[in-house]
C-alpha cells in the first residue's frame, strides 16, 4: 500500500510540474503556434499524470472507471481541439513569430 | 482560513474578474466564450457546495448549449458591440450599483453557509424529504425524489416553461417560417475531427442515457440528460453539417417530439387520477404501491422531461444554424 | 499532497485566465479557455479526493464533453461569419 502511495505521489508531483510549466508557457511564449505546445503539455501530459495519480488512490472501482473515462476523453478531445485550432488559425492567417519580432 | 475557504475565494475572484473583462470587451464572440468560462467557474463553485445536481445543469446548459446558441445568434447578427455614448454610462452605472447594493443588502439576511439553525434546516418538511423519503420513495438521491415525486407538479410547470420557450422560438425561426435558408456549412474538411466526432457520438448518447437513468442514485436526471442528448446532436450538426443531421433527425419528427414529452408527463398524471389517486400520485401505478410504484413514476417523468428538453434544445439549434444572417 | 495539486490547478487556472484576457485575438482566447476547461475537469476530480467525496466524477466527464463541444462551436460559427463577410 505504501508503494502505491509513493507512486501516486510521484505521478501527482510530475503532473503538477507539467500543468504549471505549461501554463507559464501559455503566458510567456511569443505567438499562438508556440502556445499550442504549452497547452499540449498541460492538457495531455499534466492532466493525464494527475488523473493516473488519483487513480492509484481510488478505493472503489466506480470512481476508477470514471477517472479512466475522463482520462480517455481528455486524451482524445484535447489534441483534436488543438489540431483544429492550429489549422483554423493558419487558414485565418494568424501570423507566425520570427526571431526579433515583437511578441503577439 | 481553511483550504475550503481559500479555494472558494480564488474561484470567486476569478468569477468577478471575468465579469469585469466581459463588460469591457467589444468583440462579442470573445465575450460569449468568456461567459462559458464563467459558467465553468460557477459550476465548480456548486460542486464545492455539494450542489452536484445544480452543477450538472449549470455545466450542461451554461457551457454547452447556451454558448452554442449565443454564438449561433452572433453568427446571424453583428459580432461587435455598438459603442454606447458616454452620457448614457452614468444612468447605467447608477442602476447597476443600486441593484448590486440591494442584492448585497438582501444577502445580509441569508443564513451562513451550512448553518444548522437556518429555516431550511428547522422546517419539518426537511425531515420528511431527507429521512422519510428513503422509506416512501426509496431513491438515494433526495433531489430526484423531491423534484420528480414530492414536487412533481412544480417540475411539470418548469417543463411547460421549456415547452413554451421552445415553441415560441420555433414559431419565429422554425421550419414553418419563410426565412432565407443558408448554404450548408460543416467542418467536414477536418478529417481528424470527423473521425473523433463519430467515435464520440455513441459515447455521448450512452452517457446521456446513463445520466437519465442514474438520476435516482447520483447527480443527473431528465433535464440534464435532455441537454446532453441535445449537445450530442449539436456536435453532429456542427461537424457533419445541418443537412446530414436533419436526415438523421428530420425537423418534423423533432417537432413532434417536443409536445410528446409534455404529453407523457400530463398523461401520467391523468392515469394516476383514473386509477383513483390524485394528480401525479405514483402510489396508484402498481397495486402494491410503495417504492416500486414511485420508481416507475419517477422514471416515466424523467424520460418525459428528457424527450421534451432534448427536442426543444436541438430544434432551437437547428433553427438558428439553418438561417442566413440578415444585417 | 492533494492540497498541493489543488493549489497548482488554481494557479494554472489564473495563468490561463490571464492569457484569455490578454488575447490577443480570438485564437489565443479559445486556446486559453480550452485549457481552463481542462483545468476545471481536473479541479472537480481533485476536489472530490480533497474533500473525501469521489462520487462526483460524473460531472468531470460532462465538463470534458461540453468543453470540447464549445470549442468546436466557436470554430465553426466564427468561420461562418468570416466566409459570409468575404
TrEMBL record, chain A:
Keyword presence, Membrane: yes
Official protein name in the record: Monovalent cation/H(+) antiporter subunit G
InterPro entries per UniProt: PhaG_MnhG_YufB
Upper lineage: Bacteria, Bacillati, Actinomycetota, Actinomycetes, Streptosporangiales
Gene Ontology MF annotations: sodium:proton antiporter activity
Protein family: Belongs to the CPA3 antiporters (TC 2.A.63) subunit G family.
Organism whose genome encodes this protein: Nonomuraea longispora
Keyword annotations: Membrane, Transmembrane, Transmembrane helix
A Pfam family it matches: PhaG_MnhG_YufB
UniProtKB/TrEMBL annotation, chain B:
NCBIfam families documented for this protein: PRK12504.1, PRK12507.1, PRK12508.1
Family indicated by similarity: Belongs to the CPA3 antiporters (TC 2.A.63) subunit B family.
Cross-referenced PANTHER family: NA(+)/H(+) ANTIPORTER SUBUNIT B (PTHR33932), NA(+)_H(+) ANTIPORTER SUBUNIT B (PTHR33932:SF4)
TM annotation in the entry: 6-25, 32-49, 55-77, 89-107, 156-174, 195-213, 225-242, 254-276, 296-321
GO cellular component: plasma membrane
Domain MrpA C-terminal/MbhD stretches: 14-78
The keyword Ligase belongs to this UniProt entry's keyword annotation: no
Record InterPro entries: CPA3_antiporter_subunitB, MnhB, MrpA_C/MbhD, Nuo/plastoQ_OxRdtase_6_NuoJ
One Pfam family recorded for the sequence: MnhB
Na+/H+ antiporter MnhB subunit-related protein domain: residues covered: 192-314
Name the UniProt record assigns to this protein: DUF4040 domain-containing protein
Subcellular location: Cell membrane
Membrane topology classification: Multi-pass membrane protein
Organism (species): Nonomuraea longispora
Keywords noted in UniProt: Cell membrane, Membrane, Transmembrane, Transmembrane helix
UniProtKB/TrEMBL annotation, chain C:
TM segment ranges: 30-52, 59-78
Membrane topology: Multi-pass membrane protein
Subcellular location(s) per record: Cell membrane
A Pfam family assignment: MrpF_PhaF
Superkingdom to which the source organism belongs: Bacteria
GO MF: sodium:proton antiporter activity
UniProt GO cellular component terms: plasma membrane
UniProt KW keywords: Cell membrane, Membrane, Transmembrane, Transmembrane helix, Transport
Family to which the UniProt record says this protein belongs: Belongs to the CPA3 antiporters (TC 2.A.63) subunit F family.
Protein name, as recorded: pH regulation protein F
Amino acid at each position: 500500500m505504501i508503494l502505491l502511495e509513493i507512486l501516486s505521489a510521484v505521478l501527482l508531483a510530475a503532473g503538477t510540474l507539467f500543468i504549471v510549466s505549461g501554463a507559464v508557457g501559455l503566458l510567456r511564449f511569443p505567438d499562438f503556434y508556440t502556445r499550442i505546445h504549452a497547452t499540449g503539455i498541460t492538457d495531455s501530459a499534466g492532466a493525464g499524470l494527475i488523473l493516473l495519480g488519483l487513480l492509484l488512490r481510488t478505493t472503489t472501482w466506480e470512481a476508477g472507471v470514471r477517472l479512466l473515462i475522463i482520462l480517455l476523453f481528455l486524451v482524445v478531445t484535447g489534441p483534436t481541439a488543438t489540431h483544429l485550432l492550429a489549422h483554423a488559425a493558419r487558414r485565418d492567417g494568424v501570423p507566425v513569430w520570427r526571431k526579433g519580432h515583437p511578441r503577439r | 482560513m481553511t483550504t475550503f475557504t481559500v479555494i472558494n475565494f480564488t474561484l470567486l475572484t476569478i468569477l468577478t474578474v471575468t465579469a469585469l473583462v466581459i463588460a469591457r470587451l467589444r468583440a462579442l464572440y470573445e465575450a460569449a466564450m468568456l461567459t462559458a468560462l464563467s459558467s465553468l467557474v460557477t459550476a465548480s463553485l456548486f460542486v464545492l457546495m455539494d450542489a452536484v445536481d445544480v452543477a450538472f445543469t449549470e455545466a450542461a446548459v451554461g457551457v454547452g448549449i447556451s454558448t452554442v446558441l449565443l454564438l449561433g445568434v452572433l453568427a446571424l447578427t453583428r459580432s461587435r458591440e455598438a459603442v454606447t455614448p458616454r452620457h448614457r454610462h452614468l444612468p447605467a452605472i447608477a442602476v447597476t450599483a443600486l441593484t448590486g447594493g440591494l442584492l448585497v443588502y438582501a444577502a445580509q439576511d441569508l443564513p451562513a453557509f451550512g448553518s444548522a439553525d437556518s429555516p431550511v434546516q428547522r422546517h419539518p418538511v426537511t425531515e420528511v424529504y431527507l429521512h422519510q423519503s428513503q422509506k416512501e420513495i426509496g431513491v438515494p438521491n433526495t433531489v430526484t425524489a423531491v423534484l420528480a415525486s414530492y414536487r412533481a407538479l412544480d417540475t411539470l410547470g418548469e417543463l411547460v416553461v421549456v415547452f413554451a420557450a421552445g415553441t415560441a422560438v420555433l414559431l419565429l425561426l422554425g421550419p414553418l417560417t419563410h426565412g432565407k435558408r443558408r448554404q450548408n456549412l460543416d467542418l467536414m474538411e477536418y478529417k481528424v475531427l470527423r473521425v473523433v466526432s463519430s467515435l464520440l457520438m455513441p459515447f455521448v448518447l450512452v452517457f446521456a442515457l446513463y445520466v437519465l437513468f442514474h438520476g435516482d442514485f447520483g447527480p443527473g436526471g431528465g433535464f440534464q440528460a435532455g441537454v446532453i442528448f441535445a449537445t450530442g446532436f449539436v456536435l453532429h450538426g456542427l461537424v457533419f453539417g445541418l443537412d446530414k443531421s436533419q436526415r438523421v433527425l428530420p425537423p418534423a419528427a423533432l417537432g413532434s417530439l417536443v409536445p410528446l414529452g409534455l404529453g407523457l408527463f400530463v398523461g401520467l398524471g391523468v392515469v394516476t387520477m383514473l386509477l383513483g389517486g390524485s394528480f401525479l400520485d405514483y402510489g396508484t401505478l402498481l397495486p402494491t404501491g410503495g417504492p416500486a410504484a414511485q420508481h416507475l413514476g419517477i422514471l416515466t417523468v424523467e424520460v418525459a422531461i428528457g424527450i421534451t428538453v432534448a427536442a426543444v434544445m436541438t430544434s432551437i439549434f437547428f433553427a438558428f444554424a439553418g438561417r442566413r444572417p440578415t444585417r | 499532497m492533494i492540497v498541493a495539486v489543488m493549489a497548482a490547478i488554481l494557479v494554472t487556472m489564473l495563468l490561463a485566465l490571464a492569457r484569455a484576457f490578454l488575447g490577443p485575438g480570438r485564437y489565443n482566447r479559445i486556446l486559453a479557455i480550452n485549457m481552463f476547461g481542462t483545468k476545471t475537469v481536473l479541479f472537480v476530480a481533485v476536489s472530490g479526493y480533497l474533500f473525501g467525496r469521489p462520487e462526483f466524477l460524473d460531472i468531470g466527464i460532462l465538463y470534458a464533453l461540453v468543453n470540447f463541444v464549445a470549442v468546436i462551436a466557436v470554430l465553426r460559427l466564427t468561420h461562418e461569419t468570416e466566409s459570409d463577410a468575404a
